Amino acid sequence: DRAWFRNSHKLGITAGASTPDWIIEDVIDLIGAGAEHTVLRGRAFH
């Protein structure tokens, strides 16, 4: 439901170490599809 993101300026996605990269990429693609925003991809390790 895109209404969840209506007033959002930033969105972070987290995943466990065992989550395959392709699943994370699919989620990013799904959320970013049709978005009027710039999608930036990066990785952070803590």
Tally of individual domains:
1
Largest sheet: none
Q: Count the beta strands.
A: 0
Question: Percent of residues in helical segments?
Answer: 25-40%
Task: Count the DSSP helices.
Answer: 1
Q: What is the residue-mean pLDDT, rounded to a whole number?
A: 82
As a percent range, the share of strand residues is under 5%
The structural class is mainly alpha
Low-confidence stretches: none
Secondary-structure element string = H
**Rg from C-alpha positions?**
12 Å
Distance between the termini: 30 Å
Shape: globular
Keywords: 4Fe-4S, Iron, Iron-sulfur, Metal-binding
Organism: candidate division TA06 bacterium
GO molecular function, one term: metal ion binding
Protein name: 4-hydroxy-3-methylbut-2-enyl diphosphate reductase
Secondary structure: elements and pairs:
Elements: H1 21-32
Protein name: 4-hydroxy-3-methylbut-2-enyl diphosphate reductase
GO molecular function, one term: 4 iron, 4 sulfur cluster binding
Cofactor: [4Fe-4S] cluster
